[in-house]
Design the sequence.
């Protein structure tokens, strides 16, 4: 039955749009290697349902590729369901809205974007499945898994597939070291930076970090790689300043925290650092209310300092502090662009009120970083869809200065950021924000994470990773020298080329 | 018509005792193996291997292990994921601490360690039965979760508690491509299935089934419950341990204790309930149902051209999957393996049923 399907002499008109059968075949092609085999199976299925004449037609359409040729693909790993959906959804909406905005403004130097969402549910195995599914598309620019657990699993796969892994504000802290982790980009800062900034801040409140001696700091953390990341740094700082560190784990998904807060009631720490995500954050705040622990002594990481964390708690959340990953809440020019270009026409991804909330902006900035990486890579490889390997070059040579940020409509939202071969984070500063009962307000200036403490830790952890994996570190000396040489003549045309396409 | 054993006479005991007594079955099995070993590597894509077939095969091994314990020996266990975790962490520690070990040896050793832990947690089965035993094995689950999250030695003092595996090496050859991984997992699955088949139809298997059907009667006819129950726990945990090591090294590459939580234990139990208790074939059916079906369901709306939001597709997946479970359990409470057997019975009479 399958044999007639393979005859290719018959010519028929093909429709432009993908009909169910050709979609089915492209789907089949992700499972079966040769188009020959995929067509045989699909042709068989078509013949079985519609009779033989349909097969030649279906076979003809298989020639059309799934994603249009010449488009840059952006895989979007999200979680819109499950225990972490309240936090995952605004991030995803911001991410997709930004991609839509780029397309509405004419793409990246004329190259349009395509994207596909895949639901991970924050589960590592489903995340890996999504990665395997989407990496087969042509011109995959890079993955952003939004989960430290998935990041750990993908870190081993990215080098073989030559696809960059962007983890803006999460992921493995030691992956800042571009010599050991060429494919990881923990842009804007890692959990070690976050913990460091928090210690600096509470030190400042006490009149200097040396005054922290004898104080007690409790870390209430999500019992996963995400929550455990800051422990190493806090231990280092505790040794340095002589404060006592209590580490209190909370198991996934974090709705049961009675035991954790009993420990806090007994120990009465001076500060509580909250390393939570999803429903765990609001639960922690409720428990703090029940325990009578003052909210203004609590500091959340930047994933525990957004609207979904405090709104369910109501007025009791007032005074709770959190880190801001550079940006806070509020609308900048780019938000207004999104509102005008998308939401005004009913093309927004999420509800309109969400635009400008903390996690929405985080998703938007994450997408922006990836797009800017592609744009930077286009300077070298030309204005066409690029492979992951080419995009990696762009991400490694990102240079978002104040002028560029203003052109993007992001001035005041984030600080300038520049990456190089050795430093894949680009920036390591954050500030503190406080929930005043209705909105987040900044209560501090930018802090810079202390490189003297973090650098040696990164170095040691990266070397251990390389040794465990039996890899060799690449050397950045040549690349940095080449980049310095190239930057002088390239700067002038770059400014022209990267000007946003305004209508 | 085609599937009929008329005229196939057994003239020796060995012929009578072979695993597949009917010629057509033997040919079918040979064709299936030839397809799996020879055709699949040629036509499958990386996605098919890494996301569908390899997880399916690995969890089928774990399901066989659980089926030996629950389906053949009648001891309900909710701790399979814990034994998988023991296997995975044991393999990780062997590879990290003794880098020269062959991965096959690592697999067997980690299975052996899981078997020891399984025996330990199987001891309560000598006194308690049924649901009470299920609760006792749940203790294994929580204890193991706790141990790997808290005792840093097991994770080689990794700061995040997540371990990440070095490349797999055997006989001076390192396993990298998805096809190689697939062939390796397939070989392990075939060998272990064959071993399980011979165990369950040998005297050990018969003693397990005697215990399952009525332990007092089994004891009266001379079967030692201590030996039978603990051997079932040991064999079952060995399978789970090997599956865990494969899951960690080949499927995930990097994992945290959450990868082996109680959800996985429950999923494995569902696999053997849906696939068929006391049937090795059922373990495969169940694993396919639980592993592959949700992923396919998730992709169906996109594949047939219906545009819907990611969240809705994912809710739909859960709804259809749930109703299919209920449907199959109502249609055939003895599992998919029983449906398969009924199909074969019907085929014998086809096309002239009397």
Sequence:
């Amino acid at each position: 039955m399958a044999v007639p399907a393979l005859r290719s002499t018959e010519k028929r008109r093909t429709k432009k749009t993908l009909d169910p059968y050709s979609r089915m075949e492209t789907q089949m092609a992700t499972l079966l290697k040769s188009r020959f085999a995929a067509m045989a199976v699909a042709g068989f299925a078509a013949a079985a349902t519609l009779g033989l004449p349909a097969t030649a037609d279906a076979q003809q359409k298989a020639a059309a590729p799934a994603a249009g040729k010449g488009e840059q693909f952006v895989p979007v790993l999200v979680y819109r369901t499950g225990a972490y959906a309240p936090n995952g959804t605004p991030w995803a909406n911001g991410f997709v809205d930004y991609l839509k905005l780029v397309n509405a403004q004419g793409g990246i130097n004329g190259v349009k974007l395509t994207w596909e969402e895949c639901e991970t549910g924050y589960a590592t195995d489903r995340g890996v499945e999504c990665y395997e599914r989407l990496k087969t598309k042509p011109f995959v620019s890079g993955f952003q898994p939004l989960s430290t657990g998935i990041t750990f699993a993908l870190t081993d796969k990215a080098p073989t597939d030559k696809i960059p892994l962007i983890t803006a504000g999460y992921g493995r802290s030691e992956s800042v070291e571009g010599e050991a982790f060429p494919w990881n980009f923990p842009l804007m800062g890692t959990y070690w930076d976050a913990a460091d900034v928090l210690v600096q801040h509470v030190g400042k409140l006490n009149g200097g970090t040396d005054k922290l001696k004898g104080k007690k700091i409790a870390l209430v953390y999500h019992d996963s790689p995400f929550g455990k990341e800051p422990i190493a740094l806090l231990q280092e700082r505790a040794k340095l300043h002589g404060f006592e560190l209590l580490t209190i784990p909370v198991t996934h998904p974090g709705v049961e925290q009675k035991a954790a807060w009993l420990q806090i009631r007994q120990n009465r720490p001076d500060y509580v650092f909250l390393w939570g995500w999803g429903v765990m954050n609001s639960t922690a705040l409720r428990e703090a209310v029940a325990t009578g622990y003052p909210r203004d002594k609590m500091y959340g990481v930047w994933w525990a300092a957004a609207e979904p964390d405090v709104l369910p708690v109501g007025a009791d959340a007032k005074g709770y502090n959190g880190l801001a990953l550079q940006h806070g809440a509020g609308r900048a020019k780019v938000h207004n662009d999104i509102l005008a270009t998308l939401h005004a026409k009913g093309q927004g991804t999420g509800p309109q009120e969400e635009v400008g909330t903390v996690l929405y902006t985080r998703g938007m900035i994450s997408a922006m970083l990836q797009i800017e990486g592609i744009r930077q890579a286009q300077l070298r490889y030309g204005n066409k869809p690029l492979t992951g390997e080419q995009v990696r070059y762009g991400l490694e040579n990102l240079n978002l200065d104040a002028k560029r940020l203003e052109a993007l409509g992001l001035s005041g939202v984030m600080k300038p950021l520049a990456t190089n071969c050795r430093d894949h984070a680009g920036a390591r500063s954050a500030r503190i924000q406080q929930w005043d009962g209705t909105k987040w307000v900044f209560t501090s200036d930018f802090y810079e994470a202390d490189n003297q403490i973090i650098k040696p830790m990164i170095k040691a952890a990266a070397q251990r990773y390389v040794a465990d994996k039996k890899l060799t570190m690449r050397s950045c000396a040549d690349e940095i020298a080449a980049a310095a040489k190239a930057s002088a003549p390239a700067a002038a045309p770059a400014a022209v080329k990267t000007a946003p396409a305004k209508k | 018509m085609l599937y009929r054993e008329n005229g196939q006479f057994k003239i020796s005991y060995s012929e009578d005792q072979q695993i597949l007594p009917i010629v057509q079955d033997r040919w079918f099995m040979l064709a299936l193996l030839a397809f799996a070993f020879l055709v699949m590597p040629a036509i499958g894509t990386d996605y098919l291997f890494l996301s569908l077939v390899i997880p399916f095969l690995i969890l089928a091994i774990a399901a066989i292990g659980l089926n030996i314990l629950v389906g053949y020996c009648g001891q309900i266990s909710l701790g399979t994921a814990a034994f998988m975790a023991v296997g995975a962490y044991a393999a990780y520690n062997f590879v990290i601490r003794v880098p020269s070990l062959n991965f096959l040896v690592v697999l067997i050793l980690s299975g052996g360690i899981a078997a020891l832990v399984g025996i330990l947690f199987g001891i309560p089965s000598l006194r308690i039965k049924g649901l009470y035993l299920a609760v006792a094995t749940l203790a294994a689950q929580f204890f193991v979760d706790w141990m790997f999250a808290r005792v840093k030695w097991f994770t080689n003092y990794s700061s995040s508690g997540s371990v990440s595996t070095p490349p797999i090496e055997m006989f001076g050859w390192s396993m990298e491509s998805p096809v190689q991984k697939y062939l390796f997992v397939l070989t392990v699955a075939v060998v272990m299935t064959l071993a399980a088949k011979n165990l369950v139809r040998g005297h050990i298997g018969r003693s397990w089934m005697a215990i399952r059907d009525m332990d007092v009667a089994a004891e009266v006819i001379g079967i030692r419950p201590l030996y039978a129950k603990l051997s079932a726990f040991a064999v079952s945990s060995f399978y789970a341990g090997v599956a865990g090591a494969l899951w960690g090294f080949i499927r995930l590459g990097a994992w945290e204790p959450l990868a082996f939580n109680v959800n996985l234990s429950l999923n494995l139990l569902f696999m053997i309930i849906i696939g068929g208790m006391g049937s090795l074939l059922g373990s495969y059916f169940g694993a396919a149902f639980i592993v592959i079906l949700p992923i396919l369901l998730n992709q169906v709306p996109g594949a047939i051209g219906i545009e819907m939001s990611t969240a809705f597709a994912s809710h739909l997946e859960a709804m259809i999957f749930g109703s299919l479970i209920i449907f199959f359990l109502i249609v055939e409470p003895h599992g998919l393996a029983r449906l398969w057997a009924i199909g074969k019975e019907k085929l014998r009479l086809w096309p002239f049923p009397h």
